[in-house]
Every structure is written in C-alpha cells, then in structure tokens.
Amino acid sequence: MALLSVQDLSIQYNSMAGPVYAVEHASFEMESGETVGIVGESACGKSTLGLGIIRSLSGGSITGGSVIFDGHNINDISDTEFDQKYRWKQISMMFQGAMSSLDPVYTIQEQFTEILQHHKFDGNTNDAISGAIAAVNLEESVLGRYPHELSGGMKQRVIVAMALLLNPRLVIADEPTTALDVLIQARIINMLKDLKSTGMSFLFITHDLALLSEIADKVGIMYGGQLVEFGTSENIYNNPQHPYTKKLLESVPRLHGSQPSYISGTPPNLLTPPTTCRFVDRCSEAMDKCQRDPPDLVTANGMVKCWLYE
Ligand code: SF4
Predict the structure, then answer these.
(1) Which residues, other chains included, contact 310 with Cβ-Cβ below 8 Å and sequence gap of 6+?
(2) Are 241 and 309 in contact (CB under 8 A)?
(3) DSSP 8-state class, residue 20
(4) Which end of the chain is more exposed for a tag (fewer CB within 10 A), N or C?
(5) Burial (0-12, 13-18, 19+ Cβ within 10 Å), 183
C-alpha cells in the first residue's frame, strides 16, 4: 500500500477577480521511505499541492479528489481529527522561507515547546527538542536564542528540526534550500539524505531540477496547475516524455556541452486557464488536436499528459 496516494486532486483559491484554478486533477503515489520531487516554474501550483495535502491552505480549498495517507482518506475527516491524528505527528511541513517562518519575538526553545504543547505531546519535552536539534547538527545553545541571532543556514536547520519534532512519516519540504549559499545547501541536502536513510519520506517541492536529481526517487513535473509528467528520476532525467519536461531540462545550465535554452512565452493565467493543453502556446510539437481538446494522463515511461502519447 502506498504511503501517500493523491487522486485527481483539485484546489482553488478565491480572489477578487474570481476563482484561481491553482491545482487541477493532480494524481500521484509515493511509497514509504521514498523522496518524491515536485518541480515546475513559479506559480505552477506546486506549493499549493503541498499545502493542500497538509490542509494548510489559506484562502483556498480542495474542490475535488482525495488524499489517501496510509490507506485513510484524510480529505474526509474534520480539521480537528486531522490536527489530532495527522498534522505534525504523521505529516509535517518545512515551510518556504526560513527567514520569515520563525516568530521573531520568541526564542527557538519557546517555539519548539509551543509545537509540542499544541499537539499534546506526552513524552519528555526536553528530550524531544534535544533529539530534533541534534538530528540537524545544531548546538543546544541555539535554543535560548531569537531567530535574528542565527545565520540563514542555522535558521533553515531549525525549520528542518521543527518538522522532525514529532517524528512524522512524511515531511513536505517546500523549497528548503532557497536563498541559501551552495555550501549550506549541500549540508541541508546531505542531512535530508541521512534522514531518508532512517525511513522518513519526503515530498520535496522545488524549482531546481539539478538539486532534485541529488535526492529524488521519483519526480513530478507541474505546469499551469497540472501534473503533466510523473515518473522515476531515471526516466525523467534520462528519457523525458512531455515537451515541457524536455524544455525544462534543456534550461538547466551545464559546465560542458550545449548552452541552456529558455522557454519562450509565459505560463497560463490560472484565473482563465485554457481548456485545451495548457502548454499549447509554448509547445514546439503542438498539433491541431492540441488546440481542440485537453490530453489525459496516460502511461508512457511513467505518466504523461500529452497528445503525443495517446
Ligand atoms: Fe505539446 Fe500537444 Fe503535448 Fe500539449 S498535448 S504538450 S501542445 S504536443
């Protein structure tokens, strides 16, 4: 049984201009101990997908589909039940932006303690906090400090430690290394690899394909609110199917060989997304039917949403 099965998930935000179709009909599965990467351009819906799974959408709601965690449909239960049984205990999240995720007026110790109290932790609080801090190679002295007294890398490791505090089975990591220098980035990635070896699962959300190749077992490519390709890392990196995935890979800078290319045009406006293939305006392989009907997700070296494979 898959640890997490997302089936046909759709999420909308309400805006002054009307509904924003942020995620539409996303489906994928991940096993226990796996790292799955979700990658795509800014505003493609990847963070919303993660926030939808952990039910932390602000101004938005799930409008269709299901999220099955360990065999249970966690969409069907009340917020209270989700909070009591799943949030942070089974599924936690490293939120985007370590610099702004920590409360500036509380010490790190107070912020850890608040999480444990909120989730009615009944073990030894000091041991739990010390264990989480040690897991990310931080000195216990950081606990008495305020966020502004820590470097960016230390703050990011505090965010990682917070996500680990209740020993969850799945951690949703939303751009955990953005805005960090490459050395700190490498340290965080190595730390996540060590945690993965303990059996923890990660849903790693990023725009950085090169970084993802270091850590992901499977990769999902999002475009315009849709998951357009999903497969093993080997298939995605060595044998991509969807034209957008191919272009995305061609845009990664390399030390040797061909120059990176860019994708002309802009992503669709998710207030009024096209009813056809959402990549049609930017696709060099578009055919007549791409202008008429939306493609389904079909099996082709993984799953791909493109008329070329139907
Ligand atoms: Fe390109 Fe057509 Fe495939 Fe869309 S469905 S990605 S337009 S080939």
Answers:
(1) 295, 296, 298
(2) yes
(3) E
(4) N
(5) exposed
Instruction: Provide the CA 63 distance to its chain's centre, in angstroms.
Output: 19
Q: How far is CA 58 from CA 66, 246, 247, in A?
A: 19, 33, 32
Query: Ligand 1: does its nearest atom lie under 6 Å from the Cβ of 149?
Result: no
Find out whether 196 and 138 touch, Cβ atoms under 8 Å: no
Cβ of residue 283 lying under 6 Å from some atom of ligand 1: yes
DSSP 176: T
pTM of the prediction?
0.94
pLDDT tens readout for residues 85-109? 999 999 999 988 766 789 999 999 9
Tell me the CA–centroid distance for residue 48 and ligand 1, in Å.
Answer: 24
> Would the CA dihedral through 137, 139, 140, 146 be positive or negative?
negative
Q: Give the residue-averaged pLDDT of 198-218.
A: 92
Q: Is pLDDT above 90 for 13?
A: yes
Q: What are the contacts of 293-298 at 24+ separation with CB within 8 A?
A: 297/25, 297/27, 297/227
Spacing, Cα 281 to ligand 1 middle (Å): 9
Q: How far is CA 256 from the centre of its chain?
A: 30
306 CB under 6 A from ligand 1? yes
Q: Identify the burial level of 43 via C-beta atoms within 10 angstroms of its C-beta, where 0-12 means exposed, 13-18 middle and 19 or more buried.
A: middle
Q: How far is the CA of 229 from the centre of ligand 1 (A)?
A: 12
Ligand 1: does its nearest atom lie under 6 Å from the Cβ of 280?
Answer: yes
The answer to whether the CB of 290 is under 6 A from ligand 1 is yes
| Residue nearest (by alpha carbon) to ligand 1 atom 3 | 306
